[in-house]
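Appendix B. Chain record.
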Amino acid sequence: MIRLFLDSEWANDALRELVSLALVSEDGEHVFYAERDPLPSMPSSFVRESVYPLLNRGQAAMTDQAMSHALRSFLEPLGDCEIFADAPLDFSMLNRVWSGCDRSPPAVPYRTRLAREGMLMQRLEHYFEVNPVQAARRHHALVDAVAFRSAWLDEQARKSLS
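Structure tokens predicted for this chain:
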């Protein structure tokens, strides 16, 4: 079974409109990254000043329908997946993109797992401390998904030594 690490960014806490979504596999071989086009028009000041400037745009910018299609095309060939995230809202965003505008979307080929156990969150912070270039891009969904993957791998290594 493939493990994937998820992060998403959203425009504001009230409306929770998706801005971007990223998935990276445990082995780093499978990567998905997409941004909404058009971007939500009413982002919080934090998102406008700290998230929007980090976005890739270009080929990553997709309509909602294109993003749903791209996500399905990415996940379906992987088969049964387990997707990890550090916040429940990330799963909500993932499910919205998966479902798209379809009245009956395809069955999800993934299970979700909220992962915040052990020293995971401290390892996430450590990742950004020792990777200042990545820390400067924190709140870019793909950067955060890669950091979460790294923290999870470090935590698993620690557990195996115990």
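Further analysis of this model is presented in Appendix C.
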